[in-house]
């Protein structure tokens, strides 16, 4: 199956978001990073901005919640029309309950793991999720370097998904470039978030094509 490339608008020009969305229309989904200055030491935007942007976006939204208390906020992003809503495993004590709530609203449910979080406790929960996000940097900022140590988790996940026959997308986020995307694809990722490597390119559409080619090699 061909790889999905999801550019992160964290690296876009915030003064021109509608225009920036137009530059990545050859991508698969738009990755939207929500940060609350509690779960991570950075702050981005919230529901009103996301729901308005979703109205003008040619592509569906892949929302990544780096926030505490996702129970309070995640359903609102699903109601705003997000295609997928991913919350952090470290931020909730009831991941299954929240995943079911998101699915009941019609969104795909995702669970994200920080680099230091073990994957094993979540393997038996995979049927409750549509995607798992393996963070390949510490969440909070764009432009960081890919951590190869996270690839072990991806291999465990891809083996488990393959054996179980489940249809769970395996996503990586952080430091994805033409070089690192091949490493993550080899480890079993099929969905790739890329912020600075797409938006810092002179031609984002050409960069999306290069990333796709490097992942599918
Ligand atoms: C980091 C965010 C990422 C970020 C990736 O906490 O979750 O989505 O935008 O940016 P790059 O691709 O620049 O590492
Ligand atoms: Zn992200």
TrEMBL record:
Q: By its UniProt entry, which PROSITE patterns does this protein fall under?
A: RIBUL_P_3_EPIMER_1, RIBUL_P_3_EPIMER_2
Picking any one GO biological process from the record gives: pentose-phosphate shunt
* Gene3D superfamilies on file: Aldolase class I (3.20.20.70)
What GO terms fall under cellular component here? cytoplasm
- Supply the alphabetized keyword list: Carbohydrate metabolism, Cobalt, Isomerase, Manganese, Metal-binding, Zinc
Q: Which residues participate in a divalent metal cation binding?
A: 31, 33, 64, 173
Report the cofactor remark.
Binds 1 divalent metal cation per subunit.
EC numbers for this chain: 5.1.3.1
Q: Which GO terms describe its molecular function?
A: D-ribulose-phosphate 3-epimerase activity; metal ion binding
Swiss-Prot/TrEMBL cofactor(s):
Co(2+); Zn(2+); Fe(2+); Mn(2+)
Record's catalysed reaction(s): D-ribulose 5-phosphate = D-xylulose 5-phosphate
Out of the domains of life, which is the source? Answer: Bacteria
Q: What pathway annotation does it carry? A: Carbohydrate degradation
Residues annotated as binding substrate: 8, 64, 140-143, 173-175, 195-196
Catalytic residues (positions): 33 (proton acceptor), 173 (proton donor)
**Pfam families hit by this protein:** Ribul_P_3_epim
Main EC class of this protein? isomerase
Which HAMAP family does the annotation name? RPE (MF_02227)
Q: Its function?
A: Catalyzes the reversible epimerization of D-ribulose 5-phosphate to D-xylulose 5-phosphate.
Name the family the entry cites. Answer: Belongs to the ribulose-phosphate 3-epimerase family.
Please identify the protein, giving its name as recorded: Ribulose-phosphate 3-epimerase
Recorded source organism is Cryobacterium mannosilyticum
């Amino acid at each position: 199956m061909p790889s999905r490339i999801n550019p992160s608008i964290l690296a876009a020009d915030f003064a021109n978001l509608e225009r920036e969305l137009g530059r990545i229309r050859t991508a698969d989904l738009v990755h939207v990073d929500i940060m609350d200055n509690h779960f991570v030491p950075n702050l981005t935007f919230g529901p009103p901005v996301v729901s308005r942007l979703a109205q003008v976006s040619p592509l569906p939204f892949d929302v990544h919640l780096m926030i505490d208390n996702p129970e309070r906020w995640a359903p609102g992003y699903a109601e705003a029309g997000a295609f997928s809503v991913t919350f952090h495993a470290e931020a909730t004590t009831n991941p299954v309950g929240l995943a079911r709530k998101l699915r009941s609203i019609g969104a795909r449910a995702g669970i994200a793991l920080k680099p230091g979080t073990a994957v094993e406790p979540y393997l038996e929960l995979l049927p409750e999720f549509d995607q798992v996000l393996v963070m390949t940097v510490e969440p909070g900022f764009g432009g960081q370097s890919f951590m190869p140590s996270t690839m072990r988790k991806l291999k465990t996940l891809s083996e488990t998904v393959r054996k179980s026959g489940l249809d769970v997308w395996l996503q990586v986020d952080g430091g994805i470039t033409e070089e690192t995307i091949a490493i993550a694809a080899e480890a079993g990722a099929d969905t790739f978030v890329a912020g600075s490597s797409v938006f810092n390119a002179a031609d984002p559409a050409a960069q999306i094509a290069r990333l796709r080619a490097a992942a599918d090699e």
